[in-house]
Amino acid sequence: AQSVSQHNHHVILSEAASLELGCNYSYGGTVNLFWYVQYPGQHLQLLLKYFSGDPLVKGIKGFEAEFIKSKFSFNLRKPSVQWSDTAEYFCAADRGSTLGRLYFGRGTQLTVWP
Amino acid sequence: EAGVAQSPRYKIIEKRQSVAFWCNPISGHATLYWYQQILGQGPKLLIQFQNNGVVDDSQLPKDRFSAERLKGVDSTLKIQPAKLEDSAVYLCASSPGQGVYGYTFGSGTRLTVV
Fold first, then answer.
1. Alpha carbon of A42: minimum distance to chain B alpha carbons (Å)
2. Which of A12, A91, B37, B40 could form a Cys-Cys staple with B89, CB 3.0–4.6 A?
3. B4-8: long-range contacts at Cβ-Cβ below 8 A with a sequence spacing of 24 or more?
4. For residue range B20-51, what is the model confidence (pLDDT) as tens digits?
């Protein structure tokens, strides 16, 4: 069965620090990969997505992620975090089929101190 | 473009009572998903519809949960009778029907069973 793993459950950083959140998936076939953010009391918002092409994907709010097929990884990065980045981050994958469904990781809570 | 609408936003019920959630997807989106997000976990798929047909309900506890999508548009998810462990956020999402276009999530319904 396909699964998505996020290894960091809670990350605490100071403003301006660099961020990297790990994500690994288990499916060996074609996958589409996503990072979502959930601010307190709000719905899931798409940060970025990878379908094909350049493995370095840039998203909103200065986030980027790199797809490394050999490592089954899709880590999220941001060079300098802000207090407003405090939220929960979810990595997700689907199998790239026309009837896709998302498999989510358990999420990483990011807390940024001003 | 209007988003995915869900109601109610919050619901508190006693165990063994019944409850229903409603979702209105983005207009024209053929695929609709219901996810359950338990505190501290990533969303888990309960059921997936393609138009008004069920694609995947393998994770739906069918002894107490039911869902329908009449006319291939709105959908309702019902729990009867509710258990304490059903306390969660119930998320509805929709997509055009091909995973490559991504998914849009509603704000969710937070259910507390006491």
1. 6
2. B37
3. B4/B92, B4/B93, B4/B94, B4/B104, B4/B105, B4/B106, B5/B106, B6/B90, B6/B91, B6/B92, B6/B106, B6/B107, B6/B108, B6/B109, B7/B109, B8/B109
4. 999 999 998 989 999 999 988 899 999 999 98
Q: Does A7 touch chain B (CB under 8 A)?
A: no
pLDDT digits (tens, 9 = 90+) for B67-110: 999 888 999 999 999 999 999 999 999 988 754 567 889 999 99
β-pair type (A56-58, A64-68): antiparallel
Distances (CA, A) of A39 to A86, B9, B84: 7, 16, 26
